[in-house]
From TrEMBL:
Site (described: Transition state stabilizer): N169
Native species: Croceicoccus marinus
Keyword flag Ion transport: no
NCBIfam families, alphabetized: exoDNase_III (TIGR00195), xth (TIGR00633)
Entry-linked SUPFAM superfamilies: DNase I-like (SSF56219)
Residue ranges of domain Endonuclease/exonuclease/phosphatase in the record: 23-268
Origin superkingdom: Bacteria
Protein's name according to its UniProt entry: Exodeoxyribonuclease III
Residues reported to bind Mg(2+): N26, E53, D167, N169, D267, H268
Residues annotated as catalytic: Y126, D167, H268
Length: 277
């Protein structure tokens, strides 16, 4: 059954906005970063906020903290690591469609959540990291990406207006990292990882951030180590892929970079897209 808590403060039905804003935030522990999360929601007010790495079991997810914020959460948790959630704003909350990526009955990781919101299929993902390379974790990453492609192909075939958004743990091109040489041995930019990514693009999905920032140099992650944030040594691994039905409605995309620099912040910055409603 869908897990959610009712929003206490719904959006006004007379809201004049004509655009839908969908965002993603690898929160790196929903309880540890709760003040930063609530702060971001209040300041940016996305219609949908997809979270990754909530690092909370289903039973301990802090649903009550969203009462009075105008957001209704659905979550797919896992104790200590992984976990995804979708927060929807207003009096018409998102409806859960699917939890868990099909294709492997033995996969117990909580990395995939799918819901419908105002005519849009929202898919929140936390793709496996894959390190070290080579090894079983990298094999799992590639197999997961193939299963994801299968599911996305089904969404395309059904002509469902869809966004697949979240932490992909893939650096698509050299322009998406501060130093290709420094990351050359990492699973995030191995040829196999990139090939799997571009197979998705080749299937007809639009990389929203790349479309609006084609020269690259826009990061979504900065490690806590070695002064990466202070030196702006980051890379882009959080992405929003749009089906053709939604790509036609895309008006803007970006990264809330400033939120990475706040006290006790996640090592990721939120990414977002705006669509004509």
């Amino acid at each position: 059954m869908p897990r959610r808590v009712a929003a206490a403060v719904p959006a006004s039905p007379s809201d004049p906005r004509r655009q839908m804003k969908i965002a993603s935030f690898n929160i790196n522990g929903v309880k540890a970063r709760l003040p930063r999360l609530l702060e971001w929601l209040e300041e940016t007010r996305p219609d949908i906020a997809c979270l990754q790495e909530i690092k909370s079991s289903d039973d301990t997810f802090p649903a009550h903290e969203f009462e009075g914020t105008g957001y209704t959460p659905i979550w797919h948790g896992q104790k200590g690591f992984n976990g995804v959630a979708i927060l929807s704003r207003g009096d018409e909350p998102a409806t859960e469609v699917l939890r868990g990526l099909p294709g492997d009955d033995e996969d117990t990781h909580s990395r995939y959540l799918e819901a419908d919101y105002k005519g849009v299929r929202v898919v929140c993902i936390y793709l496996p990291n894959g390190n070290p390379v080579p090894g079983p974790k990298f094999d799992y990453k590639l197999a997961w990406m193939q299963r994801l492609r299968t599911r996305m192909t089904q969404l395309r075939a059904d002509e469902i207006p869809s966004i697949v958004i979240g932490d992909y743990n893939v650096i698509p091109e050299d322009k998406d990292v501060w130093s290709p040489k420094a990351m050359a041995g990492d699973a995030l930019m191995q040829p196999e990882s990139r090939d799997a990514w571009f197979r998705l693009i080749g299937d007809g999905w639009t990389d929203a951030l790349d479309l609006h920032h084609p020269r690259g140099g826009i990061w979504t992650f900065w490690d806590y180590q070695a002064g990466a944030w202070q030196r702006d040594h980051g890379f882009r691994i959080d992405h929003a892929l749009l089906s053709p039905e939604l790509a036609d409605r895309l008006v803007a995309s970006g990264v809330d970079k400033a939120h990475r620099g706040r006290e006790k912040a996640s090592d990721h910055a939120p990414v977002w897209v705006e669509l004509r409603d």
